[in-house]
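All the exercises in this workshop are built on plain-text protein records. An example says more than a description, so a record of this kind follows:
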Amino acid sequence: MANKIISPTNLDAKRLDEARKLLAEAETKYKFSSYGGNPKKLIDYLQSPEFIELVMILGVDLSKKLVQLIRDSYQDEEMKSTANKIIEELDGYSDIEESKTVRSRTFL
């Protein structure tokens, strides 16, 4: 699923490799792989410091697209609720970044 968002068209090679590495480690640790893992374990990952690390690599926009894809791919209400909460948090972070950008342009 992540390969739809985390691709060479969206990230430079270094960040792409780092994101894939982080996801592989997370799949092993949290056991949420779509290949025989428990998809509900994805909730634990989304609420973990490891996911925050992935957000730092992907950036807010790609992270938000990834979480939206996760939300839209599962019927589980807990998964949808967790994803919606993360999307709200990413939106809030994005708003803070935009206001910092506007402020810095004002001082130029």
Notes: The chain has one domain: 2-106.
